[in-house]
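Format is chain and fold; as here:
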Amino acid sequence: MIGVEADVNGNSTFKGSVIGANDTISLATGDRADVSGTIRGRAGLVMSNALIYVTGGAAWADLKQTGVAFSNFGASGGPNANSSGTSWGGVIGAGVEFAMSPNWTVGAEFLHTLYEDHDAALINVNGASACGIAANCAIRNQLTTDVARVRFNYKWGQ
Protein backbone atom coordinates (compact mmCIF):
# COMPACT_ATOMS: atom_id res chain seq x y z
CA MET A 1 0.00 0.00 0.00
CA ILE A 2 1.28 3.48 -0.84
CA GLY A 3 -0.42 6.81 -0.32
CA VAL A 4 -0.17 10.46 0.67
CA GLU A 5 -1.36 11.97 3.94
CA ALA A 6 -1.54 15.54 5.22
CA ASP A 7 -2.41 16.86 8.66
CA VAL A 8 -2.78 20.17 10.47
CA ASN A 9 -2.29 20.30 14.24
CA GLY A 10 -3.16 22.73 17.01
CA ASN A 11 -0.32 22.84 19.55
CA SER A 12 0.46 24.27 22.95
CA THR A 13 3.54 26.00 24.34
CA PHE A 14 6.75 24.03 24.07
CA LYS A 15 9.27 23.72 26.88
CA GLY A 16 11.22 26.85 27.75
CA SER A 17 14.75 27.22 29.07
CA VAL A 18 16.75 29.58 31.25
CA ILE A 19 20.22 30.44 29.99
CA GLY A 20 22.74 31.98 32.39
CA ALA A 21 24.43 34.87 30.57
CA ASN A 22 26.71 35.86 33.45
CA ASP A 23 26.71 36.11 37.26
CA THR A 24 23.96 38.76 37.35
CA ILE A 25 21.76 38.26 34.26
CA SER A 26 19.97 35.24 32.83
CA LEU A 27 17.76 34.79 29.78
CA ALA A 28 14.39 32.98 29.81
CA THR A 29 13.61 31.56 26.37
CA GLY A 30 10.56 29.88 24.94
CA ASP A 31 9.03 28.60 21.72
CA ARG A 32 5.42 28.36 20.67
CA ALA A 33 3.91 26.87 17.54
CA ASP A 34 0.15 27.31 17.66
CA VAL A 35 -0.30 25.58 14.29
CA SER A 36 1.84 23.00 12.50
CA GLY A 37 1.35 20.42 9.82
CA THR A 38 2.86 17.78 7.58
CA ILE A 39 2.47 16.33 4.12
CA ARG A 40 3.86 12.82 3.94
CA GLY A 41 4.17 9.78 1.80
CA ARG A 42 3.07 6.52 3.40
CA ALA A 43 4.13 3.02 2.36
CA GLY A 44 3.23 -0.19 4.12
CA LEU A 45 2.46 -3.83 4.14
CA VAL A 46 -1.15 -5.07 4.38
CA MET A 47 -1.69 -8.33 6.27
CA SER A 48 -5.29 -9.50 6.69
CA ASN A 49 -6.99 -6.50 8.38
CA ALA A 50 -3.75 -4.81 9.54
CA LEU A 51 -1.53 -2.20 7.88
CA ILE A 52 2.04 -1.64 9.12
CA TYR A 53 3.63 1.42 7.52
CA VAL A 54 6.47 3.94 7.46
CA THR A 55 5.93 7.59 6.62
CA GLY A 56 8.04 10.63 5.80
CA GLY A 57 7.89 14.03 4.17
CA ALA A 58 7.79 17.78 4.79
CA ALA A 59 6.67 19.62 7.93
CA TRP A 60 5.93 23.25 8.79
CA ALA A 61 5.23 25.20 11.97
CA ASP A 62 4.13 28.77 12.67
CA LEU A 63 6.94 29.32 15.19
CA LYS A 64 7.12 32.15 17.72
CA GLN A 65 10.37 32.45 19.66
CA THR A 66 10.90 34.69 22.70
CA GLY A 67 13.64 35.60 25.12
CA VAL A 68 13.51 37.93 28.12
CA ALA A 69 16.56 38.91 30.16
CA PHE A 70 16.20 39.22 33.90
CA SER A 71 18.58 39.84 36.76
CA ASN A 72 19.34 36.86 38.93
CA PHE A 73 17.63 38.85 41.68
CA GLY A 74 14.25 38.81 39.85
CA ALA A 75 14.08 42.22 38.10
CA SER A 76 13.36 42.28 34.35
CA GLY A 77 13.81 45.03 31.78
CA GLY A 78 17.02 43.97 30.09
CA PRO A 79 17.49 42.78 26.51
CA ASN A 80 14.78 40.71 24.87
CA ALA A 81 14.28 38.70 21.70
CA ASN A 82 11.15 38.07 19.65
CA SER A 83 10.83 36.37 16.31
CA SER A 84 8.06 34.67 14.41
CA GLY A 85 7.52 33.02 11.06
CA THR A 86 7.06 29.73 9.31
CA SER A 87 9.76 27.14 9.92
CA TRP A 88 10.10 24.19 7.55
CA GLY A 89 11.52 20.78 8.26
CA GLY A 90 11.24 17.07 7.71
CA VAL A 91 9.21 14.35 9.41
CA ILE A 92 9.63 10.58 9.65
CA GLY A 93 7.56 8.00 11.46
CA ALA A 94 5.85 4.65 11.58
CA GLY A 95 2.45 3.30 12.46
CA VAL A 96 -0.06 0.50 12.45
CA GLU A 97 -3.73 0.55 11.49
CA PHE A 98 -6.43 -2.10 11.91
CA ALA A 99 -9.68 -2.35 9.94
CA MET A 100 -12.58 -2.91 12.35
CA SER A 101 -15.19 -2.87 9.55
CA PRO A 102 -15.25 -1.83 5.89
CA ASN A 103 -15.59 1.82 6.97
CA TRP A 104 -13.85 2.07 10.37
CA THR A 105 -10.16 1.77 11.25
CA VAL A 106 -8.19 2.34 14.44
CA GLY A 107 -4.48 3.03 14.50
CA ALA A 108 -1.43 4.29 16.33
CA GLU A 109 1.38 6.41 14.92
CA PHE A 110 4.68 7.95 16.03
CA LEU A 111 6.21 10.96 14.21
CA HIS A 112 9.59 12.67 14.75
CA THR A 113 9.96 16.15 13.23
CA LEU A 114 13.12 18.27 12.89
CA TYR A 115 12.66 21.93 11.87
CA GLU A 116 15.22 24.36 10.44
CA ASP A 117 17.28 26.63 12.72
CA HIS A 118 15.41 29.71 13.87
CA ASP A 119 16.99 32.94 15.21
CA ALA A 120 15.62 35.72 17.40
CA ALA A 121 17.85 38.82 17.58
CA LEU A 122 18.65 40.16 21.06
CA ILE A 123 17.68 43.84 21.36
CA ASN A 124 17.64 46.38 24.18
CA VAL A 125 14.49 48.19 25.28
CA ASN A 126 15.50 51.16 23.04
CA GLY A 127 15.64 48.87 19.95
CA ALA A 128 19.43 48.76 19.63
CA SER A 129 21.36 45.50 19.44
CA ALA A 130 21.96 44.05 22.90
CA CYS A 131 25.48 43.08 21.86
CA GLY A 132 26.75 46.48 20.74
CA ILE A 133 28.61 46.19 17.46
CA ALA A 134 28.68 42.38 17.48
CA ALA A 135 26.99 40.85 14.45
CA ASN A 136 24.56 37.93 14.64
CA CYS A 137 23.70 38.45 18.30
CA ALA A 138 20.72 36.12 18.57
CA ILE A 139 19.09 33.22 20.35
CA ARG A 140 19.30 30.27 17.96
CA ASN A 141 17.32 27.12 18.32
CA GLN A 142 16.30 24.12 16.31
CA LEU A 143 12.88 22.80 17.24
CA THR A 144 12.23 19.07 17.25
CA THR A 145 8.94 17.43 18.14
CA ASP A 146 7.82 13.89 18.84
CA VAL A 147 4.16 13.00 18.43
CA ALA A 148 2.48 9.75 19.44
CA ARG A 149 -1.18 9.50 18.51
CA VAL A 150 -4.05 7.06 18.50
CA ARG A 151 -6.67 7.66 15.87
CA PHE A 152 -10.02 6.49 14.61
CA ASN A 153 -10.82 6.86 10.89
CA TYR A 154 -14.01 6.66 8.91
CA LYS A 155 -13.76 5.94 5.17
CA TRP A 156 -16.49 7.59 3.10
CA GLY A 157 -18.08 5.74 0.21
CA GLN A 158 -17.29 2.17 1.28
User: Anything to note?
Assistant: Residues 2-154 form one domain. The chain has a mean pLDDT of 84. The chain has no helices and seven strands. The CA atoms of residues 64 and 84 lie 4 Å apart.
